[in-house]
Prior knowledge:
Shape: elongated
Strand content: 5-15%
Helix content: 40-55%
Number of strands: 13
Distance between the termini: 57 Å
Strand order of the largest sheet: 2-8-7-6-5-3-4
Amino acid sequence: xxxxIRQSSAEETxxxxxxxxxxxxxxxxxxxxxxxxxxxxxxxxxxxAIELTVQLLVHxxxxxxxxxAYDTSSxxxxxxxxxxxxxxxxxxxxxxxxxxxxxxxxxxxxRGLLDMDIDRTSYKTDYNLTQSPSKxxxxxxxxxxxxxxxxxxxxxxxxxxxxxxxGIFMTSHSEYLSYDDIxxxxxxxxxxxHEHEQSSTIQLQIAEAWLCAMDRHLxxxxxxxxxxxxxxxxxxxxxxRYRWCRRVWLFLDSLVGxxxxxxxxxxxxxSLQLRHLVNRISTIFPLQSSPTSSSLVIDGAFNxxxxxxxxxxxxxxxxxxxVSSMQAELASLFQATNSPxxxxxxxxxxxxxxxxQAMRRxxxxxxxxxxxxxxxxxxTTRRFICVDTAQxxxxxxxxxxxxxxxxxxxxxxxxxxxxxYGMGLAPDVALTxxxxxxxxxxGELNELWPHYFQHDLPHxxxxxxxxxxxxxxxxxxxxxxxxxxxxxxxxxxxFSCVRPGASPLDIVxxxxxxxxxxxxxxxxxxxxxxxxxVPLCPFHxxxxxxxAKVAAVVPPLVHVSVVYSNTQYRFxxxxxxxxxxxxxxxxxxxLxxxxxVENVPMQLPMSPSLVVVGSGIKHATxxxxxxxxxxPRIDSxxxxxxxxxxxWIAHLGSMTAPPDCPVEYTPELAFxxxxxxxxxxVRQLNDVHSFYASQGWTLQQRHAYVLGLQQLFLHRLGxxxxxxxxxxxxxxxxxxxxxxxxxxxxxxxxxxxxLATPTRDRATVFHSDVRVLTSLRLGFGLHxxxxxxxxxxxxxxxxxxxxxxxxxxxxVV
Length: 813
């Protein structure tokens, strides 16, 4: 700590010494005209740099003997000032041509600056124009007479089409910048009167002037960045200013090149303004919080045509990351070429990357500067890798693709699976898992049970509870998970928990539940159950209508789903929590999460009345034969729900206690149906998710990647889809969208057949699903890549166009 304090103190001392050496305080006053407009403040330091360069040119011409003496007869300047101009030694590598080149480069920068800033309706007042050119500039010196034609021609070439002149060098304009009031040549000249190293001092001051100009342009670029007005994108203006700042760094590279043999080179490394700019440019992305940033946070799937979504993405572009937390969205940004907003943002990100690289190249070019800068600058060159990846490999690769190489190799050629089963392709580690489980079972035989109950099951239980959002103990309430063959097995046991009397059992449910429930209810008939159905549509009122029906019927059982198969509607967590909170006493709510587990992030409510069932065959990639039930238990109390439909389970030492009667299981195994036969599925579930964890691929990241593919797909459909309906339905919490989607069309079966049939122009076969005649269901998986998704969209558009119909595809959710 003491060493750090000493280093900080030393750096501060060096910075102060540098500021004194360059007369930085006096220079800053010259760069800040009184009562100046923002536009004038931005051009002031640039004009100061021009004046300083003219001074340098005067000293260079005089120092190399081009004039016998400095001419002090000029009534406009030298006679008005107490300035001592003597013939000073000039560095060998600094000649007239070098300085003229520096002047030309700076005039070009000034022109670019004015082009960005000039408002043709208010420029006269913005820039405080006058009809008289400068009378106090060093450009009036007769020392420059041999170069006058050359310099004036140079100046005219840069300002000829501007509505006003710069105020120095003769141009044909009738109005000029009030150069003497803006630049204050008198005061500026006094800052350069050193007995030694005068040329080097001026060059450092020129560098400081452009650093100041850059800083003010970054202020302008970011001033109005945070906006929710979709009609006024700030991106083009920001891109121009970042591009201009990049050109300034390239100029500084040339300027410092003339200082390489000078002791001033390391001095520049002590510039506080330089450090400030390095830190500022290094942290352009991710965007920092602002007073209005909360209004930019969006929960919906990424839409590259939506301004808020684009701003939200820019909050997550981290140049230090190899893979962005929103890599799929970043890739889709660079592919959304028909979205003007997305194109603007892509150019902004690319330009910011180029600006960052130009700044770092400036330091890496000069070892003396780099040695000084490495104390306060991240000198790594591995920056914006996530942007490079998004630009160069957005279509034929992804961060996840390599994990599925062997599994994908088993697919027939020219075949892409976009059915809902196809989106749950297991990664290659699943094959290794099956082989290891076979070896485990063959080697252990009857001795496998301790390992299975003590390690495999607890691990699988944690995965399921984390996916459901039920992994945290709520006071004494906690959830346990039992595994079985399928969901139907657990439904039968749950129904047996509610012991029916002579009258039929009342059940409240939707009209869109999966066949695991509906087939059983139909088989029982009205003598056994009375089913009270609530229409799932319209979606936005389903939760309210469901709660009203439960309140009216007061049923022993309620059955709903998290994701509904035929529509892929996601029943929001908030509605589930409201339903559970309003349940009558002794009512059991069964929540089917078979279509949701490891498909969408969930945060389900913990309640003694809520039981969750599901399976691992699809999204959890556990393979066939793995159903589960997550049920509540309160410590030190009898089981809340005890099934009369039981199985058999061995009594092992790892269990808490042997059963006292035929229907009583130990609490954590209350719904087990018999000797477990799901070793392969349970261990595959564990191994796949251990692999995901080792890669840092959270459920939220995997879900975001797939939703990014969906957004690419929807955007590619173009005129084939009802965009008004689609956009209006994709603006909610991203957790409310499944990895599958449904497109409704009268001719869905025809479209399905067209996708599955290769054509002369398209050899690829696309597998998909058709539900309830008019719904084309498409599943997007972690193994899919953008090029495949775009090919699917193109095939659908072609098939839709062949229908010769005005009916557009409608996104159901």
